[in-house]
Amino acid sequence: MTARIAINGYGTIGKRVADAVAAQDDMRVAGVAKTKPDFEAKLAVRKGYPLYAANKEAAAKFEKAGVKSSGTLDDLVKVADLVVDCTPEESGYKALYEKAGVKAIWQGGEEPSLTNLSFNAAANYEECLGATFVRVPSCNTTGLIRTLYPLDAHFGVANALAVMVRRATDPGDSKKGPINAIEPELEMPSHHGPDVQSVLPKLNIHTIAVKVPTTIMHLHIVTVDLKKPATADAVLDVWKRFPRVAFVAGRDGVKSTAQIMEMARDLSRNRSDLYEIAVWRDGVHVLDGKRLFYFQAVHQESDVVPENVDAIRALLEIQKDGRKSMDKTDKSLGIGMVK
Amino acid sequence: MTARIAINGYGTIGKRVADAVAAQDDMRVAGVAKTKPDFEAKLAVRKGYPLYAANKEAAAKFEKAGVKSSGTLDDLVKVADLVVDCTPEESGYKALYEKAGVKAIWQGGEEPSLTNLSFNAAANYEECLGATFVRVPSCNTTGLIRTLYPLDAHFGVANALAVMVRRATDPGDSKKGPINAIEPELEMPSHHGPDVQSVLPKLNIHTIAVKVPTTIMHLHIVTVDLKKPATADAVLDVWKRFPRVAFVAGRDGVKSTAQIMEMARDLSRNRSDLYEIAVWRDGVHVLDGKRLFYFQAVHQESDVVPENVDAIRALLEIQKDGRKSMDKTDKSLGIGMVK
Amino acid sequence: MTARIAINGYGTIGKRVADAVAAQDDMRVAGVAKTKPDFEAKLAVRKGYPLYAANKEAAAKFEKAGVKSSGTLDDLVKVADLVVDCTPEESGYKALYEKAGVKAIWQGGEEPSLTNLSFNAAANYEECLGATFVRVPSCNTTGLIRTLYPLDAHFGVANALAVMVRRATDPGDSKKGPINAIEPELEMPSHHGPDVQSVLPKLNIHTIAVKVPTTIMHLHIVTVDLKKPATADAVLDVWKRFPRVAFVAGRDGVKSTAQIMEMARDLSRNRSDLYEIAVWRDGVHVLDGKRLFYFQAVHQESDVVPENVDAIRALLEIQKDGRKSMDKTDKSLGIGMVK
Amino acid sequence: MTARIAINGYGTIGKRVADAVAAQDDMRVAGVAKTKPDFEAKLAVRKGYPLYAANKEAAAKFEKAGVKSSGTLDDLVKVADLVVDCTPEESGYKALYEKAGVKAIWQGGEEPSLTNLSFNAAANYEECLGATFVRVPSCNTTGLIRTLYPLDAHFGVANALAVMVRRATDPGDSKKGPINAIEPELEMPSHHGPDVQSVLPKLNIHTIAVKVPTTIMHLHIVTVDLKKPATADAVLDVWKRFPRVAFVAGRDGVKSTAQIMEMARDLSRNRSDLYEIAVWRDGVHVLDGKRLFYFQAVHQESDVVPENVDAIRALLEIQKDGRKSMDKTDKSLGIGMVK
Fold this sequence. Notes:
homotetramer; alpha/beta; Rossmann fold; Dihydrodipicolinate Reductase, domain 2; 2 domains; eight-stranded mixed β-sheet
């Protein structure tokens, strides 16, 4: 029987999770809940997703706008086995899910303490099997785990320092800036370091973030002191054995995040997303045998999407083997084309 | 027999025309010619398009980079019935095509005098039937023709003034600016007015252009003095009868070009393109019964793509009826979903 | 006796008005009122302006931050002959000024109906002599009046259409966007047309606005149907006789608003401001003898500053002759250097 | 006798050096040499700087444009004691200066090997006394030296890692991008590390650079392993004893580079420049007693200007004591106001 998945919150992440769920053969979209009857709501209906209003106020707006809904979130959770919560952070639906007896997955905007269990398919799938509630860390954190977990497993990470040059807002937003400034996150470490440790508790990592006027990708500059000596090639070889890490090269004309997203569009995937973390092959350097530097780019809108699909399988125990779930997810989304 | 189409120049437009040709059942991609063995070349190979080097120097670069090619452009034109030339303006391949005896279609960067015949499927398909050489006007010009031709046909256009707020470069480019400035085109009229007249010679139009720091779409502010009185609703009704004009609304949350492209991504089309011209429904105003104002947004990377496909059919006389060609093209590309 | 001027609101406009007032010999800064004890408050103190908290809550914040204030706004109005209100629109201080019996000048964010009298030094100085309350229209409106009033006076304006390509936010702000989008103002006309008419009630003008990702200047594209025939040179000659219109030229390397502001910085004025409206000399075109097109750039942070100084003189009847006030103001600010 | 200083190249740096030289009482502007008769040339004339054409071709352009020049560079060097070369990198004027027997100072775009002596007033003024040729390192390098030299002198720097988030181009340029991308410098270390060592040869530093779509400032994220333990306050105390390091604070509303440059404008300096390196007071953190992190912002257009003035004094031996030269320069430029 296919699992019935509700998506609460149909914004940047929610709509992508919905499409990814719909692309699987062992789960289906039970419905999506939204607060506003805007163009995204209309497109959800066109895709055939049962549309629910987030609450009664939202239901009134839907009716006024002439957008038909199948009920409210209260109704939706009754027909679902699991809710993927993609609402803004601290929206506070946990009690509702508990009362309804549905499992739930939250996104990285929430505090790790909300679930006390955070998920990354490559790092701790098995640990999350059968859990009631889990949290998929944010795009940046997921990006760091994708490349640091393999490094730690193969070479040992003595300590890691990640400077994250963050996109300021998503492409579909036109309200937020800055238009012409760089903004440091003055508190230190940024929340990403502890967030990585919510999945990899023993990893010694410090993170620093600055915000810049771009919308398309984050870029990370990562410095790692390895326990065992390595070469750039050896590091690349390790990453190649992991899914969801893709490679680009300046010498192929991929000079910036602009060309990475251009390549992503050329891959003809849904929404031109890039679920993989993109690492510059010719930007990996090892100094003195043990100090590794690399650049990676993170498509903030989509890298967590396959993780959510895998988390569903783990919580509902549809698949006990994490690697098999990842393979299935990746195949359905076209991941793994760029190595 | 399916027509054999060569694409010379595999950049923003060329790669889209290739994919659009490949999506038709009455034509196929004979090959694509490129100058550089970059990531786009590698992706072309992955898509199964026979890859040719633009010339011998390019061939040497391809070999050096380990990218296999099927020969050079000279070889490609021999196995093609028609070349779609998507090279930078004034690349000067006309003589080569003439010598090879192939038909050819150029893009809007070229001067109208290169072909003395410019093409727009809705406006003059029949006029171009069987022609040897034709030119598809630029993205901005095509955008203006899409909405002005219907207005002229139904209400008569006494005169039109279009202010074009232009994106400065395409999303995949990271070299060009401005980053923080507005740049007027001081010469007047901009080339777009005469360019519209290359298809609609009797249309009285004046065009003005400014460049702004954005990459995703152009925005046009159009003022039209109509010969017959009209209302905003009547104008919208006319446009609805034409393909390749889509509608958006501020009241649906589409406040800017950012949300239009977000919507385009949500449509799950190839490369998240929007082949239609997007008109803001709630931005159409008629003052004093005859002076019409409207805003339209143009996806500069893709609006000419369906026009190229239709132009192929017209030149090769695969289809004598323009409207049938447009319907076929539009169905293959998913156009017509947003009305 | 020098007039005592209070400035309520010490942001982009307020701090500039304060400095401009301080540069005159017939008025002085009685004090400036602020809501936040931020770096701008600290710099106000360093400049020697008596600093007042906007209200009691603000006073508490000032004390907590260790920034000394001379009291609250209530105290400030008692020692002032006139208040220049540079607070955000609809802050609602009118009753307070009325009660205190001080004259006041508001900025263009307010509705014209707040004062029923709007001010432009060149257009209606004499009309405002001795008034109690007046409003200086916004940067964009002031910019339009600066060039349209002379045209109307000399050639007659049958009708004018202004498309305003607006900077999205000021350089000192890092919160607002868009980062990568163009946003049309769908309601029509934009408020600027009626706002021009608050000073020039008989001028037939329609205005349209779009917002773009830049911080430094607005750019206007103006189309005017003149009543009397004119040439581009004749139009330039008229403007040259008016202060606060400056000229730039693409052929001198001033291609965009970036170079205009670079030139402004090179003029070594306070804050690198450009109080004049900059018109591109080689962007003025007349078609068919009567249809005039021109481009002008507006430094949104400063063009209204000299108008505020003149408005003070008009309301307090320090100077009865508008042109003499303008000359005095302009000399003190370094205006008139670029012709 | 006042030293006669020629400035060859009158762009971003050249025009600032000219103004700074003009502001001293022990040197004067003998003339400035330019290649184009653009608005900057006209403004140079207005400032009273003798204007020279860079060469005969330039002289012809000047004449054609009606801009009077005092001769060519060949003439200028004859009436100068020292040339500050602010031409684009590798312009190759060294032989000309040698032949003319004038001393010269180059900017950081040149390779350190051009002069084999690089200059920073705080770090090695005395070392450069009487030298014939010297080079002032680039804005970024100068910025790093300004804060690292004091740290090394007081605490000892075991190693330093600087990630530089670079503005893509200057505010007065409208050609270069990116508009919406982040571009890493894939080669490592970036040239800045070795460049710091051209002044501080024993400093163990690694530098990494990325380019972002902003024009106003660079931002550095610096990690330093100190030899002696320190606290954030102790580090701030050391920097306070050095000129040309200024402090800002997020808690004062300075959240990003936008507010820093706003503050710079409020200081009413020439061109709104900020000659100091701005360090965020509340962004200085020390972990485990010895690992220091801090953020600093660099005004790329002006931080090297006072260094050039001091270098002139060192080379011409006008002042033997570096600290006295710095004090004199700083006083003339208004530096030292923000502590």
